[in-house]
Amino acid sequence: MDNSERIRIIDLQHHELFDIFADIQSRREPVDRLYAESAMDKLTEYVHKHLTFEERFMANIDFPDLESHAHEHEGIRRRIADTREKLNTADPAEWTGVVSQLAAYLEHWLKEHILSIDMKYRKFMG
How much of the chain exceeds pLDDT 90, in percent? Predict the structure, then answer.
């Protein structure tokens, strides 16, 4: 697989993440534990898949800012883990807000991340 194919996959993953965020945020009725856990599992799994793929790609191209980029990714992984812990202690009436707030935060973060940080490795590639 060449670098242009890897970039295409990263872009497709970004679209999938935005779809996941939109799906979670569009839910209007209160969520039960099953939905909350399912949404968190989906977010955790897909965000991990994407960040890992992106970090491997940057390592393959010898991207000089990989360490700081990976550090930012680690912050997102911690935020998801903290939210999962919050769900475990939150009142069920708060589950909808907790999951929706995380999706909104991740959506905002991803937009900023793509426009600033991700553009750095694209420029690096020429």
Answer: 58
CA-wise closest residue to 116 among 51, 47, 65, 62: 65
Model-level pTM?
0.87
**Distance between CA atoms of 126 and 3, rounded to whole angstroms?**
12
Cα–Cα separations (whole angstroms), residue 85 to 1, 47, 78: 38, 17, 10
Helix axes 33-60, 3-26, angle to 10 degrees: 160
Query: Which helix or strand (DSSP H or E) is residue 66 part of?
Result: helix 66-89
What span, in angstroms and rounded, lies between the C-alpha atoms of 115 and 93? 35
